[in-house]
Amino acid sequence: MTVQKPTVFIVGAGAHVDYGMPTGAEIIDGLARCVEGTESSQWKDVLAHFAPEAWETMPPSLSIPLGAKSYRELLRANLDQLSRRLAASTHGSIDELLGEWNELELVGRRLLACLLLLSERNASRTVRIGGLYSWIGKVCAPRLDSHGGINQASMSSIKNVTIITFNYDRLAERYLTRIKNNTSEIYSSLPLPKIHHVYGVLSGCEDLQSSYSDYKIDERSIRGSIQSIELIRPRLGVAQGSIPHELLNPLMQAEQVVFVGFGFHDHNIRKLFIPSVWNGQHREIFATGYGLSERDKQRVLKALQIPIIFGGDSETCESCLRRWEPNLLGVVD
Fold this sequence. Notes:
By secondary structure, the protein is of the alpha/beta class. It folds into two domains: 2-20 and 127-332; 24-123, no CATH class. 44% of the residues lie in helices and 9% in strands. The chain has 15 helices and eight strands. The strands form two sheets. A six-stranded parallel beta sheet has the order 4-3-2-5-6-7. A two-stranded antiparallel ribbon has the order 1-8. It is globular and about 65 Å long.
């Protein structure tokens, strides 16, 4: 099977839940348990990397008690405030909240970086069978001709697929690299589909083939990730047309756009939906609908003013892709 038309996959956090990445609700619950002292083993690992001993300087806004030496004291002094604000927030995402409350930004950035790095490391234990990236890996796998070489027509999938991800983690790169390297020697020599991160990407452990035991998290990777994360700042607003320039061409040329696990929050809509890109273009647009009510879907359709084929509100990402495969995505045998 090959992807016959230029296709852009726009990936949100929902597409990575099956791979072990935490949801916003899980982060809020986990942080509250930390403050209560009833955190899980995963969060104990997060807190160990979060320890204040690793910090060289502490801004006055963090209000660190004089003589504080343990991460528990740091939590009581600072993260309890972050936890309460997260729980009461009406923002669409945690990074949006951090962009709104400057006094929480440093402590929140570090917490987010530690949690996501550890979650990404845990996801590297296995190459999960199923999910978005197994599906993309399958349709991008080249076919062989009668002489054992690559059928050039089947190379169109890699050229036609672009992934635009709103996630900080590198699961797209890591999973697709490991899948293709485990498939065949010929496939392993080919490039990945084009992958773009809209809001920045985690740092450290650049070896996309690294195993769980080889995936090291240290102060350098944490600090690099903190600097790479681009927070959403509602007070400053997000102007229409602020999508990175390198993403304009794939969107303009795409004949098919597939939203996978995407949260249609207002800030993402303002950033991504530019009239000159979407209006007047003949293309098919699909979106997984897991967790979206009919009211949510109507809100999105009204805001975007473009037709979208939605998946069911309880239908998984992979189920939607398989159902759309024969004719909607231009995938043929």
